[in-house]
Amino acid sequence: MFSKPPRNKREIRTLVGPGTRVNGDVIFSDGLHVDGVVHGDVSLAEGASGALSVSQDGVIEGNVNVSEAVVDGTVKGNVEATERVELGATARVVGNVVYALIEMASGAEVNGKLIHKAADSPGQGRTASGSAGTAKARSGKSTADQNEEKPEAR
After folding, report:
1. Are 90 and 106 in contact (CB under 8 A)?
2. Residue ranges with strand state E in 17-136
3. CB 3.0 to 4.6 Å from 43: which of 3, 30, 65, 131, for a disulfide?
4. 3-class secondary structure, 149
5. What are the tens digits of pLDDT across the range 80-94?
6. pTM of structure
7. Phi, psi at residue 135, to the nearest 5°?
8. How far is residue 112's CA from residue 109's CA, in Å, rounded to a whole number?
């Protein structure tokens, strides 16, 4: 009754296996699965879309820029996904997470900011903490304008 809709599964074409260490950036298309360690940025080939999955034992020490990210391991860097981020119960991210859609399991850790970026408007992100223009939107005046109108105490 309350089952999840089927996701668009991407084929895993690149694997960083357990016990494998990659020193340098990884650029891929389609799917990448990390069971080992990557010291460098992980991103998609220009014009490509693809999914990254990081297993419970996988580690990435660098920034991630992909369409979809499923993290159960550790990422020490910013994670940016244009479509979706899924953080499993054992996920650890030391950096900001930029997402269009996010799913977090109980136990996942993010030591950074969660930043929502709408999928249809690249470059127009807003932080999860809210908007600084709220006071102006309600009163029609900014906080600075309101402070200028207050009479001085004598």
Report:
1. no
2. 21-23, 26-28, 30-34, 37-39, 42-44, 50-54, 59-61, 64-71, 74-75, 79-87, 92-93, 97-99, 102-104, 109-110, 114-117, 125-127
3. 65
4. helix
5. 999 999 999 999 999
6. 0.73
7. -60, -40
8. 9
Q: Amino acid identity, residue 81?
A: A
Pairing of strands 114-117, 125-127: antiparallel
Which candidate, 70, 124, 122, places its Cα nearest to that of 93?
70
pLDDT tens digits along 104-121: 999 999 999 999 998 754
CB atoms closer than 10 angstroms to residue 86: 21
In sequence order, the 6+-apart residues with CB closer than 8 A to the CB of 49 are 10, 29, 67, 83
**What is the maximal distance between C-alpha atoms in the chain?**
74
Beta bridge partners of 28: 44
Q: Which residues of 58-68 are buried (b: 16+ CB within 10 A; e: fewer)?
A: bbbebbbbbbb
d(CA 105, CA 71): 11
Structural domain boundaries in the chain: 12-127
- For residues 94 and 75, the answer to whether their CB atoms sit within 8 Å is yes
